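Can't attach files on this board, so I'm pasting raw text. These are the components:
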Amino acid sequence: MTDTTASRSLAGFTGHVVLVGAGQMGGALLRGWLDNGLPPARITVIDPRPPANVQAIIDGSGIALDPIEPSIADVLILAVKPQIADEVMPLVRHVVGPRTVVVSVMAGKTIARLEQVFGAGTAVVRTIPNTPAAVGRGITGAAANDQVTTAQRAAVETLLAAVGRVEWLMLEDWIDIVTAVSGSGPAYVFLLAETLARAGAAAGLPAELAARLARATVEGAGELMFRSPDIEPATLRQNVTSPNGTTHAALQVLMGAKGIDAAFVEAIAAATKRSRELAG
Ligand SMILES: NC(=O)c1ccc[n+]([C@@H]2O[C@H](COP(=O)([O-])OP(=O)(O)OC[C@H]3O[C@@H](n4cnc5c(N)ncnc54)[C@H](OP(=O)(O)O)[C@@H]3O)[C@@H](O)[C@H]2O)c1
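---
Top answer:
Structure tokens for the assembled complex are below.
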């Protein structure tokens, strides 16, 4: 596995990238590529109705819409909703040629399914990003088939690293667990801010004050962890926990028998199971 922690300049990127679906995730990728210097001439977008903010980026940068040149893609990124993927993928097959690597950021679309649509010998990377990609702080798990060359892997990694970190997965099967941990993960953190606020209000604080405290705490703790890459989360936790102090009292409840560990094991198992059920 490779952990790519820093985005790299895309100014020298030599391939042509075709993005299918320029919504939330596709739009985040597009912004990341342009911010990291990918020349607009190297990008084509296929999307009949991008959201206004993405359309403005396309118009402002002169990115081409809808390629007419067959086999133009060195990298084809599929970022439409999984529900319409089976309808859309055959429509973009013509941009795929012998040197193309097909990259899916679509939940639940297996490598086997993509090979079925684009041809058995096609290089395919299946990924699962997450929403902090919108601020360049996402993390993407990526699984490649045997057709993906070292150069294609490097190209894909550079493109994905424009919106955050990249973890290469040895097994495609792990994608469902990655979906449960980091794909859905931001929701768990937002829930933490919500529940902390509710608990503060339940204990007697005005609800709005409790919400501000909880939100700033989650934001600040995340930032502290981000700026302390060499310190384990457990150490950061211990650093704010004095023996028999207030944090210790709360953690005894959270880490007790019916605490957060058991809840998360169950939650991740449920999300992994659901991801497997939705795959096809
Ligand atoms: N957002 C996330 O947190 C997240 C995380 C991990 C993975 N993903 C994956 O990313 C993919 C996209 O999700 P999203 O949230 O970015 O969805 P989205 O905002 O709906 O973006 C999809 C875009 O594709 C467009 N589209 C519709 N039909 C098309 C066609 N025939 N050809 C080209 N583009 C077409 C949509 O236009 P209309 O709106 O007009 O239909 C929309 O602009 C999904 O497969 C999802 O599983 C998302």
